[in-house]
Amino acid sequence: MEKYYNRGGSNQVHALRGIDLTIDANETICIHGPSGSGKSTLLSILGGIIGPTIGSAVVGGKKLARLPDRFLTLYRREHIGFIFQRFQLIPELSVLENVTLPLLPLGVRPAQQKKRAMELLEKLEIDHRSDFPAAEISGGELQRAAVARALINDPSIIIADEPTAHLDTRLSEDFLSIMSDLKKLGKTIVIASHDPLVSESPVVDRCLYLRDGALAAAF
Amino acid sequence: MALRYIDRQLNIADYALSGFKRRVARNVVVVFIFALVIFMVASFSLTTTSLKQAAGRLLETVPDITVQKMSAGRQVNLTEDAVDKLENIFGIRSVRPRVWGYYFDENNGANYTVIGHPKLSEKSPLPGLGIDYLPEMQLDTVAENAVIGRGVRQSLELGSRRTFSLFRPDLTLKSFITAGAFGADTSMVTDDLIIMDLQAARDLFGLAPAEITDLLVDVANPLEIDNIADKIGERLQGVRVVTRERIAKTYRVAFGWRSGFGLACLFGAMAAFAIFAWDKATGLTPAQQREVAILKVVGWQTEDVITLRFWESIIISASALGLGYLGAWMHLLFFDGVLFRPVLLGWSVLKPPVSLIPVFSIGDLLIIFSLSVLPYLAATVIPAWHSAAIRPDSVI
Asked: Cβ contacts (< 8 Å) between A69 and chain B: which residues?
């Protein structure tokens, strides 16, 4: 699989080169590498947000590159829980409202939305902050809220992009503990991180090293 | 499936409402400006409808046909024998003589319209005037009974008194006693009106015994009015025959072109607002773009985002429509349509004050809806198509 940005143009970027990767179900992968190595691009392709330029990403038998945008959205909705580098919660919305965002277009009723969201928030121990605006909670709470939003549709695949980049050691360990619990639930987890705390964690089954858009090693 | 669709719409509408609250300052300004534009259009429409209805009530007092004698282009008096010449025309139900004129009160500079009606002594209902006769009306003093309008009562400073006097042409006084009151909703017609018996009006104006001002003709079949009007014109020489429809047409033309002109001017305001809305909708702030990208990543489709914009527009335009229409209603009810009365009434501002009553018309409301909500939806939802296509990877 290859990915180019602005292909053929003077500002062409060859973000991914010759990626040949298989991830098994229930496996936890860490993609390790310096900034600009293509980690986020690879995650975006796996998450069905963008498509590769050459080659394809096949998830659960479906070739993502060939799906129209509408079906990519459905794919993300049903199979992917995405945790962003900066969490990307909507600051004016409460934690509860942020977590239930993926449920709105599904027609889930408000009572059911709240029930599902509060169950997750209780497990993640931030139910006491459910009514607080996202702009008013701490970094660790933001992280947990982002995890809750990613899990609200019970996806089979969790994709986390630099989840510990803005967290201290304790909160990073908390995050890894959550990932460990998700792994026990049978989730497939792909984490992009250049944090050694993540790459060296026992939660991770396999660590891939990405450099200049190519997989350099696996360990 | 239908239930799930409805639930989806309700969820997105609820999210749109929360978005409205989150950006309340900006949205309140938009709603206010939009409501102001709707207020102007609705005020104009309500004032026009109210005036048309008032004119319609006035037309109820107008007989099917009015016959006036003309000489040198001016109206002159008839004699009562003209009644006999018309009564045998087939299709005419009744012919009534009428005396009317203007009485100038030198004490206060007011002009009253005086009508002498042959049926006043019978406590006749007099179509369109809604006279509420006093039970104390004395039939043996029928020549002195009169029904006066509110404006006349105020000009004469009667207070609670019932008797008043007017001057004949020879400056002798003629006394009257009020015998009833006009309906409250007839003020446009009756504010300066005095109705008395036919003979009393002759006496007041110093007319000869058989002299009358015009003839009021009622027709059995309204479809025959024009035919009978032609026959009357053939039967009586030198007369002007005016049908009710002709008077109605005059009112329609008078209000119609003024109303249309006013609305045409207000269209400019509506168009300017629609352009403003379009311009606003085509450019999203970075925060809004980020929000759309986040929604797309967590599973919102492009159509969901467009549905969100649709509901946002509905909330704003419905709020503005409600406020604007309510404001227009209150403008007419409590302030008598002061902004647009001069435009619509024209010379009539010289008449005694008329209270306009707002009339709810589903047709008018639909027109206002079509001129306000629909263009706003088009101006905001169409550009939303473009912004809804924001790529979700912009937040990665």
From this structure: 302
pLDDT of residue B395 exceeding 70, the answer is: no
Q: Chain A to chain B, count of Cβ pairs less than 8 Å apart?
A: 85
Domain range annotation of chain B? 2-58+250-395, 78-212
Q: Do B294 and A88 touch (CB under 8 A)?
A: yes
Q: Minimal Cα–Cα distance from B27 to chain A, Å?
A: 16
Note whether A105 contacts B12, CB cutoff 8 Å: yes
Task: From chain A, pick out residues whose CB is under 8 angstroms from the CB of B11.
Answer: 103-105, 107-108, 110, 113
Q: What digits encode the pLDDT tens for the residues B327-376? A: 999 988 888 777 776 666 654 443 445 566 777 888 888 888 888 888 88
Query: What pLDDT is attached to residue B346?
Result: 55
pLDDT per residue as tens digits for the range B78-124: 888 888 888 888 889 888 888 989 999 888 888 888 988 776 666 66
B270, two tokens: 């509506």
Got the DSSP string for B98-111? EEEEEEEETTTTEE
Distance, CA of B154 to CA of B157 (rounded, Å): 5
Considering only CB atoms, B294 lies closest to which of A74, A90, A92, namely A90
Question: Domain coordinates of chain A in residue numbers?
Answer: 3-218
Nearest CA in chain A to B308: A105
DSSP notation for A140-193: HHHHHHHHHHHHTT--SEEEEESTTTT--HHHHHHHHHHHHHHHHTT-EEEEE-
In CATH, the architecture of A3-218 is 3-Layer(aba) Sandwich (3.40)
- In chain A, residues with a C-beta closer than 8 Å to the C-beta of B295 are 101
- Asked if B298 lies within 8 A of A149 by C-beta distance, the reply is yes
> pLDDT tens digits, residue range B125-147?
565 566 666 665 554 454 478 88
ipTM of the complex: 0.88
Closest residue in chain B to residue A39, using alpha carbons only:
B396
Residue with structure tokens 């989806």? Answer: B8
Arithmetic mean of pLDDT, B288-304: 88
Please compute the mean of the pLDDT values over residues B376-396 and round it to a whole number: 76
CB atoms within 10 A of CB B232: 21
Q: Which residues of A touch B396 (CB under 8 A)?
A: 40, 43-44, 49, 84-85, 161
Q: What is the number of other CB atoms lying within 10 angstroms of the CB of residue B81?
A: 10
> Cα separation of A199 and B171, whole Å?
116
CA pair distance B39, B300, nearest whole angstrom: 37
Question: pTM here?
Answer: 0.72
User: Mean pLDDT over residues B167-178, rounded?
Assistant: 90
Beta-carbon separation of B11 and A103 below 8 A: yes
